[in-house]
Amino acid sequence: MKASHAKAIEVTDLTVAYQETPVLWDIDLDVPPGVLLAIVGPNGAGKTTLIKAILGLVRPAAGNVLIYNKPYEAQRRIVGYVPQRGSVDWDFPTNVLDVVMMGRYGSLGWIRRPGKRDRALAMQALEKVGMENYTTRQISQLSGGQQQRVFLARALVQDATIYLMDEPFQGVDATTERAIVTLLQELRENGKTVVVVHHDLQTVTDYFDWVTLLNIRRIASGPVEDTFTSDNLRETYGGRIAFIKNR
Questions:
Q1: CA 116, CA 121: separation in Å to the nearest integer?
Q2: How far apart are CA 155 and CA 103, in angstroms?
Q3: What are the strands, taking DSSP E only, across 71-140?
Q4: Separation CA 125–CA 75 (nearest Å)
Q5: DSSP 8-state class, residue 129
Q6: Which residues make beta-bridge pairs with 95?
Q7: pLDDT tens digits for range 1-59
Q8: How many Å apart are CA 88 and CA 86, to the nearest integer?
Q9: Entry pTM
Q10: Could you tell me which of 201, 198, 146 has the C-alpha nearest to residue 172?
């Protein structure tokens, strides 16, 4: 049983460098349980790197990350991940249902084969994202929005406590975007913690309740109404910003 005061994600003094060039610098970030949080910042700000560092996919030069007071390796089963669509090999020969079933392997292990219950959970997840009629379709034959829905279903079937999503709205149509937003908000209402790399500043206040402003270092993080301010946005984007919320 997790302590009610435990932080869902705690990042401390995190620095990540590529070829000695800092991509993230001395990041401190606390994410409380049950929030829907956007990570926003300009291109090259380190948003994707921050997600990968939390997941242990990149090695930091300094600092550490805790998931509910424990290292990620001890908590990987409670963390779901939706990568950028562009980072996935969509030509890999597999169908929609098989992709979603991959989300069950964390619970099953790699030796046990998925059973009827796992298939039923996969179908429920596909229904949630409106893809239940595409189970046998090869993923390479799907549109960008459909591919994104399938990866969301794969994360859902894991039944994680924390979800990390890297640009889930990238390249999707308006209908898919609305469906994804509804799904993310349902996850939050069910007590899940959802962290999303996001690029559209105009939708932050409508979609999210927490925001982290990032540009190599953390500029600000907290509830949207307190944090998503003109001053913080100017500091994050260096004044080069067409849209600034009046606050």
A1: 9
A2: 6
A3: 79-82
A4: 22
A5: T
A6: 138
A7: 344 568 999 999 999 998 888 999 999 999 999 999 999 999 999 999 999 999 999 99
A8: 6
A9: 0.89
A10: 146
DSSP letters, 200-222, are -GGGHHHH-SEEEEEESEEEEEE
C-alpha distance from residue 226 to each of 202, 205, 210, 229 (Å): 16, 11, 9, 7
Amino acid at 73: E
Q: What are phi and psi of 221, to 5 degrees?
A: -155, 135
Distance CA(45)–CA(104), nearest Å, equals 33
Q: Give the angle 106-119-84 at the CA atoms, nearest 5°.
A: 55
Give dist(CA 49, CA 34) in Å, integer: 23
Backbone phi and psi for residue 82, each to the nearest 5 degrees, phi listed first: -115, 105
C-alpha closest to that of 78 among 215, 191, 203: 191
Query: Which tokens hold the place of 212?
Result: 């982290």
